[in-house]
DNA sequence: CTGAAAGCGCTTACAG
DNA sequence: CTGAAAGCGCTTACAG
């Protein structure tokens, strides 16, 4: 750190010939202090380049002005947008964001949570790594820090008394709408491509897909469920598994946009033309979905707005910790673009 | 906040019948304390669920364990990856990341910096909003907090005494290599597409491009310089300006990958086939460059590694503030994929 | 409207 | 090896 002593309240008080308490009142805009005194003090702070030490104030007041945000995968634009939304809303409310990224590793996530807890945040927003255990999270953050979990449910049960809010997307309705639309276009053999069946969001999205099939009188075929890690790279690599089916599907409902974009590239690599002779839908509506080639038909989840919403929910809970754990499921809607045409005659 | 009193060092000390000082020594693994006492204290901390209050410790020690990271555009994967790299490296060194995002607004940036300064970070990593003034930044953070600026130079001069480190890419060499490659493939009419001429990175990239043209005996045409905001959306919208030129260029060196991906979509919209009858190159090598359609020939900058590097540089300076402002320019290299073929005969 | 004193949860010399 | 006291930079009653 820098050697020079920092300017403190004391310096200002001494220079102005008033007490620390008076300067403190000026700082927080109290009406108690005489306008003339206020002007004097403010000028002196300006002159000396005083900068408030919020950590010291928070210590005394026993409050926190920080919220921890732990993200599983910042390189996925869906989560990057979410993070931007969280930070925006927290900043507007005077909170600062403590960032942590787990890179989808539950071990790293535990470590990151532990380190963030030492800063006694007012709350935690967690977009969990795949297959994070509720009991691990409970252990890391204890039962007194408000927690909001985003997007994926924690697996397993924590001890009773560990409560948290949940903000998720209506996964089932989303894939159901996408699948129904494909059926309406004339598709009959529709795969569900990508994601890990273990994750709550993947499970829910598969259910919506199967519901739409059954509703149309189509028997879901087990082999139409193809697992891949939820990344572009993995989705690209497994495209051949989809085309190897006999008879091959004519359409794929994908776990998310990253998977859909990867699959489309894989299809091109294998000589197919997604958007012309094969239909693909995504989930999330990340910014590049609209400007892909072809533009992606997908389920829109507005990640930046979700981030703002997550921040609101968390701060509400921090303000009244007595409310029991809530679960907010956000409606989503299908955005049609060009990647999902009718089946090639 | 929660009503219940937090467990403190005092509680542990009292429960164990030792002094606070002893518990403090246990906490920091001092060899001075008797092994038996240590075991006792540790067991008690476990039992009561004690969590260290790093803010209080930092206050007493007059140090900071936080570094502020201010990002201009988290929805650009280049910067999201950079942020992930910074957080990773800082976490490994025991620092926590204070996140702020400016959304490319200098006003918002000033506000965010001011709020982060109140947390007295050990240093600041700033990826500046477009056309941020050095004097504004100097005003917001003062002259005693180590600063590392990433990617873009600050415009204008600050008062003397305001020093900072700079980490940037070798922009000139990057676009020069891309342009030279296009020329080698047989292109003669090559545009420079996208970016704002006011930004230092755009200026440098244009220079590299013009150098390569001149070296090949091609006179750069003013009209080949087309400005757009550095986003997918804007790049897409202005594609017609490129094709309207007479005679039309056969290739475009783009300001960055976001612009290149947007331009390619715009070209498709206008009936062209990038990668077949038009050559496009990017800059950054964001993850989706490799899996675009066609895969993008681009200049690789390895943003996540740059993030780790930025964290290292900043912590070095924080450790020895006496070193004068350094400027580290990272070499980049051309990654050839399919988006830049030879000109259509 | 302003000041003197105590305290937030830690660490740091200084004794012993 | 352990304890008593002072202090980091603030805020909070309590007097006046």
From TrEMBL, chains A, B:
Signal peptide: none annotated. PROSITE patterns: HTH_LACI_2 (PS50932). SUPFAM superfamilies: lambda repressor-like DNA-binding domains, Periplasmic binding protein-like I. Residues 7-61 form the HTH lacI-type domain. GO terms for molecular function: DNA binding. The keyword DNA-binding applies. Keywords: DNA-binding, Repressor, Transcription, Transcription regulation. Gene3D superfamilies: 3.40.50.2300, lambda repressor-like DNA-binding domains. The keyword Transcription applies. SMART domains: HTH_LACI. This is LacI family DNA-binding transcriptional regulator. It comes from Luteimonas endophytica.
């Amino acid at each position: 750190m820098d050697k020079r002593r920092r300017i403190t309240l004391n310096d200002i008080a001494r220079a102005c010939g008033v007490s620390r308490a008076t300067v403190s009142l000026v700082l927080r805009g109290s009406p108690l202090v005489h306008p003339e005194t206020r002007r004097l003090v403010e000028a002196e702070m300006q002159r000396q380049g005083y900068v408030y030490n919020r950590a010291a104030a928070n210590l005394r007041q026993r409050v926190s002005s920080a919220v921890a945000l732990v993200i599983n995968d910042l390189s996925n634009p869906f989560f990057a947008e979410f993070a931007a939304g969280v930070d925006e809303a927290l900043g507007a409310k005077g909170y600062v964001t403590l960032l942590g990224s787990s890179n989808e590793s539950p071990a790293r996530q535990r470590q990151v949570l532990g380190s963030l807890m030492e800063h006694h945040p007012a709350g935690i927003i967690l977009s969990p790594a795949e297959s994070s255990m509720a009991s691990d999270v409970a252990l890391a953050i204890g039962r007194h820090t408000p927690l909001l979990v985003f997007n994926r449910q924690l697996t397993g049960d924590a001890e009773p008394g560990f409560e948290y809010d949940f903000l998720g997307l209506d996964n089932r309705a989303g894939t159901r709408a996408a699948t129904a639309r494909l059926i309406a276009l004339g598709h009959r053999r529709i795969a569900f491509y990508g994601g890990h069946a273990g994750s709550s969001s993947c499970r829910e999205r598969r259910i919506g897909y199967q519901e739409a099939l059954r509703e149309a009188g189509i028997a879901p075929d087990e082999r139409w469920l193809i697992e891949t890690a939820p990344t572009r790279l993995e989705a690209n690599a497994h495209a051949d598994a989809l085309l190897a089916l006999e008879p091959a599907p004519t359409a794929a409902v994908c776990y998310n946009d990253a998977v859909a974009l990867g699959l489309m590239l894989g299809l091109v690599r294998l000589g197919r033309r997604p958007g012309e002779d094969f239909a693909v839908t995504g989930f999330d509506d990340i910014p590049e979905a609209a400007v892909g080639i072809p533009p992606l038909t997908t389920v829109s989840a507005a990640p930046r707005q979700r981030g703002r919403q997550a921040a609101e929910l968390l701060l509400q809970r921090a303000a009244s910790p007595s409310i029991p754990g809530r679960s907010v499921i956000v409606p989503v809607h299908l955005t049609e673009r060009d990647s999902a045409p009718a089946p090639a005659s």
